[in-house]
Amino acid sequence: MLNHPAPNKEPARVVQELAEYENVAEHVKLTQKDLEQNGFTNNPFFHVIIAEVPEQHRTKEGQRKIGFALYFYSYSSFVGRAIYMEDLYVMPEFRGKGVGKALMSKVAQLGLAAGCHQLDFTVLNRNKPSMDFYFSQGCFDVTATIGYHCMRCKGEALKQLAQL
Question: What is the reported pLDDT for 111?
Fold first, then answer.
């Protein structure tokens, strides 16, 4: 079952699991309060879809929320409306069972319903299983085909850049 959740402790748990899976747990600075203030308001910065299993299929730890897709709407100066999927995560024991496909499909459906012309996302170059999955869904590597690179400015560099 896919749903748009109310705020609770689950989003922070699954974000931490994703960071551990990607070997970047030390970079997580986000708090549960940040998630609630930024995603569960009248004007959210992001949206999330949670994959949830019935009670009888919960994990050994008792979890029913087994994956998520975090997304937001963006804009391309070339094609117009777009949707950006920041994260797609499924707990390891539920991978290969169509959960990731269902989450990504829902994001695509929402994008099309909103008039979006493309779905953008990034994937770690060392995450071959995910890359293979995305290629199997008809996605392509923008860096390899067009040459775009994802750039970032943060922390002190962002503050310095913001100074006039």
Answer: 97
